[in-house]
Structure formats: C-alpha cells, structure tokens
Known about the structure:
By secondary structure, this protein is mainly alpha-helical.
Amino acid sequence: MTTRRQAGEGxxxxxxxxxxLAGLEGALGVRFRDRALLDLALRHDSFAHERGARAEHYxxxxxxxxxxxxxxxxxxxxxxxxxxxxxxxxxQRARLVNEGALAQLGRSLGLGVFLLLxxxxxxxxxxxxxxxxxxxxxxxxxxxxxxxxxxxxxAVATRWLYALLEALPERGTDYKSLLQERxxxxxxxxxxxxxxxxxPDHARAFLARVEVDGQVAGEGRGxxxxxxxxxxxxxxxxxxxxxxxxxxxxx
Length: 251
C-alpha cells in the first residue's frame, strides 16, 4: 500500500506529487502545461542518486534558469542605468543576484517544503540550505522557460527582480561590523575563511565562511574576498536570530 507523505519527502505517488505542486504554481503565478517539469526542477541530485544512475535532477534546468535570470536582470540594469560602465553594471547585478538573495527568494516562495532530497541531505538541513534554495530558484525558472517560453519566464523573473530590489540592503551596510557587535554582547567573535576561489583573474568568484564557536554560522559568495565575507556575515546575522543561536548552540 502506498503511503501518502508531505511533498518534500519524495514518497508520494506521482499523481499526489503533481497535485501538491499545484499549490506552488499559485505562489509562482504560473500554470504549468507539463507539471512534471516543475517536479524535476525540485529534485536534488542526492535524491536522484539514491534512485539510480539514470535518474534526473535539476542541474540542467538550473543552468538554463541562471542564464534567463541573468539576462532579465542585465537588461533591466542596462536600461535603468545608461551612464553606468560595464564594471558598475556587473557590481549592481552581483548585489541583486547572489546566493543569499536567491535563497531568501526561495524561502518566500516556500520552495523548501517541495524539494526532493536524499536522506543525508534531508538530515543535514538541506531544505533551508542557502546554496540549495538558490539553485532551486534558478531551476524553477528554467522549468518555466521550457514549459511556457521566454515571455512567461521573463514575466516571472521580472516579478522576482522587483522582490530582489525591495530586499536589497542599503548601500554601504557593513554586515561584518554588525555581526562583530552582536557577538561581542555574548563574548564571542567571528572567524572568517575563504574556502573557495574560482574563475579567471578578471572574473574571480570567492566563497567565504564565517564560524562562531567552531560552528558554521554563514556562507557567502562575491567577486572579491571582502564582498564574500560581507555576504557570509549577512547570513550569519540571520542565523543569530534563530532560536538557540544567541545562546551559542549550533544550528
């Protein structure tokens, strides 16, 4: 007998699963002709690997959605700031389209509950992992593009763009200083590490990690080490607001 479970657990029958995704369509403002594409956009590779080498997951759709989102944002910035140089436009785009911002967008859309994860990723808190949520946002946009074409995908991405603009922090916000002040209240201090650097010299991308009491409190990406550390500090500030974090317990 088939057991019905929540959408995110990945054990519902296919009709059940596709029916549950109808609720997500409402949040997206899109009605899929092929809802199986939306299902695919929410399958993490850990889920697929547990089901065999040929099982599909969302990485191809993520690749496509990333390109669509960057085009929409680039087009907006190009038209909005005619006096900006290429470098200035790239910096503006990086402020809008980054892991932290996309993860927050994924949370607002409620993507976490619909993700299909492997057992290890599930136990590791994958449903709220920033990198995973950011990837899922792009994969969902890729699915919209395949299902309905660029016009609908552009409309969805534009709505998301305005949401990203509204959530954009004030220019010059020093998250590292804010984090330092918050932690000093309890006698703790942050420790930053650059854990990844990739890309050519003219387009380097860095991944920074900030630890508190030996626990990872935040991660962030940026085009410079300082930008990556600021993004990590921003995520760590959100971590501090979670129950237990202020007392020093790991997430």
